[in-house]
Write a structure and sequence with these properties.
globular, 451 residues, nine-stranded mixed sheet, 15 helices, UDP-N-acetylmuramoyl-L-alanine:D-glutamate ligase, 17 strands, 21% strand, 35% helix, alpha/beta, Protein-Tyrosine Phosphatase, Chain A
Length: 451
C-alpha cells in the first residue's frame, strides 16, 4: 500500500481514538501503519536530515531522552521526541505520524527517541541512527525480557559494525562490554559517590566477567552491580570514561556532582533524586558533547530539564504536596529508598503495585527490594492489584502498613495522613501511576506535568 495512503489511514485512526476518548493515540496510529506498511518506520527515518539519536536500557530512558533533547534544542534544528515514554516501534511510528502533515512529510530535522530495550534491534535497523546511548541492564520483567545476557547479546548483535556514535555506561559491566569492538564507543561513569549505601541492596545482576565468566572484583560498588571493577585474570576491566563524576549529595529533590570533562571541572546540580539520575545526566552530557555541543551549555540545559512523566513529578492537592517516583524493578526502587533515606525528615508513603502487562505479571521482584533499609515513615499506605503481596513483603521487612484494595480509599487514607502544607511520597508501578494521575486530575490541577 502506498505510504501516503497508510499515513492518512493512521491519522484518521488517531483522530477517531481521541474523539472516542480512548487516549492520546500514542501507539494506535503506529500499530495501524505497521500492519499496512512493514517498512513505514524506515520510510519516516529517511526524512530526517540530521538523523536520529536512540536511548535504551532498563532504567532512565525517559529522563535521559528529555535531557538530550534539552541539550540539542536550538533555533537551527527541529527535534521530534517521544516525550510520553511510549517506546515500542509502533509508538515511534505514531510519533512520526502525528508530527507529519497530510502530504506525509515530517518537519523535524532530528529525532531523539527512547526505545524499549527488547525493541531496540528492530528500531536500530530501521532508523540507522547517527548516535546511540545505552544506560544499563537490570533485571526487569523477566517474563518478557528474559535473562540479561540474552538481551545484551541481542544489543551487541544489533550494534555490530555500526558507524554510529555509541555512548555507554562504563560502570555497568554488560553495557561496557558492548563497546569492546566498537571504534566509536565512548563512556561515562563515576569515580566516587559520597552516598550512604543500603545494607540490603542485593539486586546485583551482572557481576561476572563477560570473557571468562569469573566473578568480577569490585574496587567500588555504587549500587546493584554498578561500580568500578576488573576481571581477576585481567580479561576485562572497566573502560575509561570521558565524563567522570564525583557525587557529593543526593536526596529526593536534589543531586550534586562534580564532573571532569576534557581536563576541566564542572558542577552539576540536578533537581532530581538519586545516583541513577546522575548517571542519566552524565549519559546526556556525553552524548551531546559527542555531537559537538558546548559542555557548559549542555550542563545548563540538562539542569533545567523538567522531570519526566511520573519521575519526580510534583502534584499539589488540598494544600499538600505529592511527589511521585515511578518504581518498576528492585534496582530503581532501591535507588529511591536510598535517596529517601537522605531526606532530613521522613514523609507519609503511598506504595502502589500493579501486575498488569505493562508492569510485568511477576511481582516476585518485591522480595529483592531493600524495604528493610527504608526510613521509618509516620504512615505507610499500600494499594494496587497486588496490595496484599506488597503488604506481606513489608511485614517481613518490619514495616507496618495500611492495606487498601481500593485506589480511592488508599488515596484518601494517604492524603489525610499528610499534615496541611506538608509533603507525601508516592511510589507506584507504571499502570498504577497512570491510574493515580487520572484520579488526581479529577480533584486538582496537575502541577509539573509535561507530556
Amino acid at each position: 500500500m502506498p505510504s501516503l495512503l497508510v499515513i492518512w489511514i493512521a491519522k484518521l485512526s488517531a483522530a477517531l481514538s481521541k474523539r472516542l476518548g480512548r487516549g492520546e493515540a500514542s501507539a494506535l496510529p503506529g500499530l495501524v501503519a505497521e500492519r499496512l506498511h512493514s517498512n513505514i518506520l524506515e520510510h519516516f527515518g529517511r526524512q530526517l536530515s540530521q538523523g536520529s539519536v536512540l536511548v535504551t536500557g532498563t532504567n532512565g530512558k525517559t529522563t535521559t531522552t528529555r535531557m538530550i533533547a534539552a541539550a540539542l534544542s536550538s533555533d537551527e534544528q527541529t527535534l521530534l521526541v517521544n516525550r510520553s515514554g511510549s517506546n515500542l516501534s509502533r509508538s515511534l511510528v505514531s510519533s512520526f505520524i502525528l508530527a507529519s502533515d497530510w502530504r506525509g512529510r515530517v518537519s523535524a530535522d532530528m529525532a531523539v527517541f527512547e526505545v524499549d530495550e527488547a525493541a531496540f534491534p528492530e528500531v536500530f535497523e530501521a532508523l540507522k541512527p547517527k548516535a546511540v546511548v545505552i544506560l544499563n541492564l537490570f533485571r526487569d520483567q523477566l517474563d518478557r525480557y528474559g535473562e540479561l545476557n540474552t538481551l545484551a547479546s541481542k544489543l551487541q548483535q544489533a550494534l555490530k559494525g555500526t558507524k554510529a556514535k555509541v555512548v555507554l555506561n562504563a560502570d555497568d559491566p554488560l553495557i561496557a562490554w558492548l563497546g569492546h569492538d566498537l571504534p566509536n564507543a565512548t563512556y561515562f561513569g563515576l569515580r566516587q559517590a559520597s552516598v550512604k549505601k543500603l545494607d540490603h541492596d542485593y539486586a546485583a545482576d551482572s557481576t561476572a566477567c563477560p570473557v571468562c565468566g569469573r566473578a568480577l572484583i569490585y574496587q567500588e560498588i555504587f549500587y546493584a552491580h554498578v561500580g568500578i571493577y576488573s576481571c581477576s585474570k585481567k580479561h576485562f576491566k572497566r573502560p575509561q570514561p570521558i565524563v567522570v563524576g564525583s557525587t557529593t549529595r543526593v536526596t529526593l529533590n536534589q543531586s550534586q556532582t562534580t564532573l571532569e570533562i576534557d581536563g576541566k571541572t564542572h558542577q552539576l546540580n540536578l533537581e532530581l533524586p538519586g545516583l541513577y539520575n546522575v548517571y542519566n545526566a552524565m549519559a546526556a552530557i556525553t552524548m551531546a558533547s559527542q555531537l559537538g555541543h558546548d559542555v557548559t551549555e549542555i550542563i545548563k540545559s540538562v539542569e533545567s530539564s523538567p522531570a519526566a512523566f511520573g519521575r519526580a513529578e510534583t502534584i499539589r492537592i488540598n494544600d499538600r504536596q505529592l511527589q511521585i517516583f515511578l518504581v518498576k524493578n528492585p534496582t530503581g526502587f532501591n535507588q529511591v529508598i536510598q535517596a529517601y533515606g537522605a531526606e532530613p525528615k521522613a514523609s507519609p508513603l503511598l506504595i502502589l503495585v500493579n501486575d498488569l502487562i505493562a508492569d510485568g505479571r511477576d511481582v516476585s521482584w518485591l522480595w529483592d527490594v531493600a524495604f528493610e533499609d527504608m526510613p521509618e515513615s509516620p504512615v505507610v499506605v499500600v494499594g494496587g492489584t497486588r496490595v496484599y503481596d506488597l503488604a506481606l513483603r513489608l511485614k517481613y521487612a518490619g514495616v507496618e502498613a495500611q492495606a487498601q484494595a481500593s485506589l480511592n480509599e488508599a488515596m484518601k487514607a494517604f492524603v489525610e495522613s499528610i499534615p496541611e502544607g506538608g509533603k507525601g511520597i508516592v511510589l507506584p508501578t507504571y499502570t498504577a501511576m497512570l491510574e493515580l494521575r487520572k484520579e488526581l486530575s479529577k480533584q486538582t490541577e496537575l502541577v509539573g506535568m509535561d507530556q
